[in-house]
Design a protein that fits this description.
There is one protein chain. With 233 residues, this protein is α/β, with parallel strands linked by helices. Helix content is 33%, strand content 24%. The protein contains 8 helices and 10 strands. It has a 10-stranded mixed beta sheet, with helices on both faces. The protein is globular. The model has no long low-confidence stretch (mean pLDDT 96).
């Protein structure tokens, strides 16, 4: 099994084989939590305009999304695991659009990835178990970073962790998480003035690695719309 650790949108453009598009803070961590709270289906959407059109056609769908971390005007929720904790999602369909993760799906799909999973720390072991069972010739672990343009240490850690689970490499996750908390790009979660946008609880929920025993599979509907479904491992 050839395992490639790729980075940002240009990495997504090089995706091959079974591809895991990683966005820890917060898109693909959030999607795991949304499914755990009863969501039946999630549509990850690249463009804001596409998301709004879907809402017009399906008024009962729940709108979740951000740009620059900030909830989009008129949306039901921002891209926050903690701020959606009280949401009534049982049996509902969610439209989800973000700055990095969903853009990565668009690019990886266009690159010709054979199969796409979303990636996060909260279901990293499940992802590794799924990949081992599939035993593909090529695996692409795409660390999406900040808006797909700048590296993010949490996505890099997730990519390295999944790779370590596949190769048998030892990775001290306790130490890695402590190091992560000191990264400048994580400081926003501990900034009192940013709690409305980046609650500290989001950081806590997103680094709770191996919490969920399922993977999230991606099915392309159009060039800009992807159906996300939960699959137990």
């Amino acid at each position: 099994m050839k395992i490639e650790l790729l980075h940002l949108l240009e990495g997504a453009d090089q995706a091959k084989g079974l591809t895991v598009v990683i966005d820890v803070f917060r898109a693909f961590s959030l999607e795991c939590y949304l499914f755990s709270r009863g969501a039946e289906k999630i549509y990850a959407v690249g463009a804001e305009e596409t998301a709004r059109q879907m809402k017009t056609e399906h008024p009962d769908y729940v709108m979740v999304g951000e740009r620059g971390g900030v909830i989009l005007p008129g949306f039901d929720y921002g891209n926050s695991p903690s701020q959606t904790e009280g949401a009534d999602l049982m049996g509902k369909t969610v439209i989800h659009t973000t700055s990095a993760g969903t853009q990565g799906l668009v690019h990886a799909s266009a690159a010709g990835a054979e199969e796409i999973l979303t990636g996060s720390l909260v279901n990293a072991s499940a992802i590794a178990s799924y990949v081992r069972k599939k035993n593909p010739a090529e695996v692409s672990l795409v660390c999406m970073g900040i808006c797909g343009k700048d590296p993010a240490p949490e996505d890099e850690l997730c990519g390295r962790y999944i790779r370590s689970l596949l190769t048998g490499e030892k990775l001290d996750m306790g130490r890695e998480i402590l190091t992560l908390a000191n990264e400048p790009t994580v400081a926003k979660f501990f900034d009192e003035g940013m709690q409305e946008i980046f609650p500290v609880k989001d950081f806590i929920l997103c680094i709770e690695y191996d919490r969920f025993p399922f993977v999230l599979k991606v099915r392309k509907c159009t060039d800009d719309i992807f159906e996300i479904s939960k699959s137990e491992v």
